[in-house]
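Researcher: I'd like a candidate sequence for this fold, 424 residues long. If you have to choose between options at a position, lean toward the conservative one.
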């Protein structure tokens, strides 16, 4: 036996064998050094801990995505109020201005506001825990539509840059409809196709395939682009992670991941630097016993009426009455106690209430008003995304999502609420 100095060691390390398989090892033991102080050998136990390390990496990743999700929900809620203060007045100006130059400026404000709203929505769709009503979706048909929508990017733009991107599909026949939403699947495909195009600055090919498997439908998108190294690959689903300086938002794959997660599906990625990338995701077949979503609500015109809005955000409180002034006489109060103390509350045909209010939440206010025998229908207006089963929605007859920009949607909802009041 080698005589020498001994000390205890605990090591965790990754080792790659000749086949390229990397495993994590945990070694506890005594390190023996030779007479010249060099490590000679370790006497102890060695354990393969690859699964444990992967699970903890996965947990860190999930926690990071969860924290980002909460942050995104908070940001979108605040931005939705701010956006109402931009989009609402822009619409009021649009219908009052005649000077074409000013109209053009207002149009720019309005369009930029809409873009910001879409960005907020995308951020939320990607990382929030938004609930949707799932319907049967035709996968092959949605792929054809996504290819049409993206055609200018992979065909016209590519040709203009002097490169060729060939797109092929290998679509399985007789695919069952899957559980999802057509717009969600469309968005997933768009993001994956755009990324494939971005990954092939010298041209190449994209192949989209569908496979009908026993318990699911598999969709894969393969490109022959630049691929990714391991470090990039491990972060691609994080919101705002991008390697496309100045042009990327880093929200594409976060959105894809978020949508698939909501549908309880997964996505995998296989990539080789310099060779290309394949994204593969799985969709569950639609079972006919599942409920279909209700049809879109009919568009009604709102009669002239008196409504009340309880909203602590000044921008929203001032903007909404002005947006609706031709149809509704709207009284705005900014606290629940003001609302509760208003005389003759039954003069209002509809009561719109924000959720976060000083002193009392919007749903609690609605309950309190009901106790005072207020008969008007209650409409919840909120920048939070609440799913249909959320108890905070229970006291309300209708729900409007901020930012409220579509005059038609607001009017239709108020009209429905009023109609409900007079027919029930
Ligand atoms: P963005 O496209 O705005 O950068 P994404 O979330 O869509 O954001 O993608 C994040 C990153 O993932 C990209 O910046 C890129 O580095 C990498 N990536 C995504 N798809 C591919 C692909 N098909 N080939 C190579 N890299 C990709
Ligand atoms: Mg992208």
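Model: Candidate sequence:
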């Amino acid at each position: 036996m080698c005589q020498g100095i001994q000390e205890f060691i605990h090591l965790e390390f990754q080792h790659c064998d000749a086949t390229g398989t990397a495993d994590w090892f945990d070694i506890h033991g005594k390190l023996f050094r030779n007479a010249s102080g060099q490590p000679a050998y370790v006497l102890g136990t060695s354990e393969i801990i690859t699964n444990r390390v992967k699970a903890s990496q996965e947990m860190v990743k999930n926690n990071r995505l969860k924290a980002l999700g909460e942050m995104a929900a908070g940001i979108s809620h605040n931005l939705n109020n701010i956006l109402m203060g931009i989009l609402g007045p822009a619409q009021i100006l649009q219908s009052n201005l005649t000077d074409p130059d000013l109209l053009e400026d207002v149009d720019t404000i309005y369009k930029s506001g809409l873009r910001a709203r879409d960005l907020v929505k995308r951020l939320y769709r990607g990382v929030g825990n938004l609930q949707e009503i799932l319907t049967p979706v035709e996968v092959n048909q949605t792929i054809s539509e996504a290819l049409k929508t993206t055609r200018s990017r992979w065909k016209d733009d590519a040709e203009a840059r002097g490169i060729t991107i060939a797109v092929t599909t290998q679509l399985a026949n007789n695919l069952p409809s899957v559980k999802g939403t057509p717009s969600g699947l469309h968005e997933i495909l768009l993001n994956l196709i755009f990324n494939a195009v971005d990954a092939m600055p010298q041209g190449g090919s994209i192949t989209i395939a569908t496979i009908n498997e026993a318990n699911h439908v598999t969709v894969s998108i393969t490109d022959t682009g630049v691929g990714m190294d391991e470090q990039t690959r491990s972060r691609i689903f994080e919101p705002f992670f991008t390697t496309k300086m100045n042009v990327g938002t880093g929200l594409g794959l976060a959105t894809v991941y978020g949508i698939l997660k909501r549908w309880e599906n997964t996505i995998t990625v296989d990539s080789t630097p310099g060779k290309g990338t394949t994204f593969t995701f799985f969709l569950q077949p639609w079972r006919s016993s599942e409920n279909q979503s209700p049809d879109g609500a009919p568009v009604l015109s709102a009669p002239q009426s008196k409504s009340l809005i309880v909203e602590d955000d000044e921008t929203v409180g001032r903007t909404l009455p002005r947006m609706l002034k031709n149809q509704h006489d709207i009284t705005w109060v900014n606290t629940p106690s003001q609302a509760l103390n208003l005389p003759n509350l039954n003069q209002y045909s509809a009561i719109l209430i924000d959720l976060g209010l000083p002193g009392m939440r919007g749903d609690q206010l609605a309950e309190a008003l009901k106790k005072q025998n207020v008969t008007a229908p209650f409409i919840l207006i909120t920048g939070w995304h609440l799913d249909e089963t959320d108890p905070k929605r229970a006291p309300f007859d209708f729900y409007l999502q901020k930012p409220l920009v579509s005059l038609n949607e607001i009017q239709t909802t108020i009209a429905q609420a009023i109609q409900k009041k007079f027919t029930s």
